[in-house]
Specification:
single chain; 228 residues; alpha/beta; Rossmann fold; Arc Repressor Mutant, subunit A; 5-stranded parallel sheet; 12 strands; 21% strand
């Protein structure tokens, strides 16, 4: 089996080399860059499975670079930053699958990366079932969502979260349960990451905000209510 390919982008050579060396020791094929231009060249050459992006780069921002990469492929993105303001965290999660703040633990980063990459595991003998609710159709094999006849552009994590909710209509999910089910590990950060991704999905699949399929259950979490 070919090794998983990672791209590390950070303008601090000490941090970049530390991450590069650690992840290489974990068996990943790692490339690294200190600026956006080099990162983009490596991205096109190697087509990585996951990119670790520092927010502040000398010639661009990690957010902008990640946004452009997600437009090209379904690459997983981990934002790496010293920013902790809520507005920055929320913005980062609109394109990222996870958000790691400096200073950070290499072991924890490795665990988060491994958990994210598990979403690419191959299908078992029993393929997941396609779902249909009125104008909304979810195909887990093609990993496509259609609203009417229009393809909805979801990130890999957004798709997994939507499919998890829609596969059990009416079930109320706690945020912690969704983190365990979709993120596939004990998330140690702010559980509002769930709220951010739910908001992104709602904007993409619910043209009528008054008739929401993903409903908030106050004090608990969320549930998916099927429409006819």
């Amino acid at each position: 089996m070919a090794p998983v390919k990672l791209l590390v982008v950070d303008d601090d050579p000490a941090i970049r080399n530390l991450i590069h060396r650690y992840l290489s020791q974990q068996g990943y094929q790692v490339e690294s860059a200190g600026d956006g231009e080099t990162a983009w060249e490596l991205f096109e050459q190697h087509n990585p499975d996951l990119v670790i992006l520092d927010w502040n780069l000398p010639d661009t921002t990690g957010y902008k670079l990640g946004e452009e990469m997600r437009e090209r492929t379904d690459v997983f993105v981990v934002m790496l930053t010293s920013r902790t303001d809520e507005i920055d965290v929320v913005k980062g999660f609109t394109i990222a699958d996870d958000y790691v703040t400096k200073p950070f633990s290499l072991v924890e980063m490795g665990a988060r990366i491994a958990a994210i990459l598990k979403r690419k595991r191959p299908l078992t003998q029993a393929e997941p079932q396609s779902l249909s609710f009125g104008q909304l159709a979810i195909d887990p094999v093609r990993r496509e969502v259609l609203l009417g006849n229009q393809l909805v552009a979801l990130t890999a994590l957004e798709f997994d979260l939507l499919y998890c909710l829609a596969s059990k209509p009416g079930r109320v999910w706690r945020r912690s349960e969704l983190l365990q089910e979709v993120w596939d590990y004990e998330y140690v950060g702010d559980q509002r990451v769930v709220d951010v991704h739910i908001g992104q999905i709602r904007r993409k699949i619910e043209p009528d905000a008054q008739n929401s399929m993903i409903q908030t259950v106050r004090g608990v979490g969320y549930k998916f209510e099927a429409t006819t």
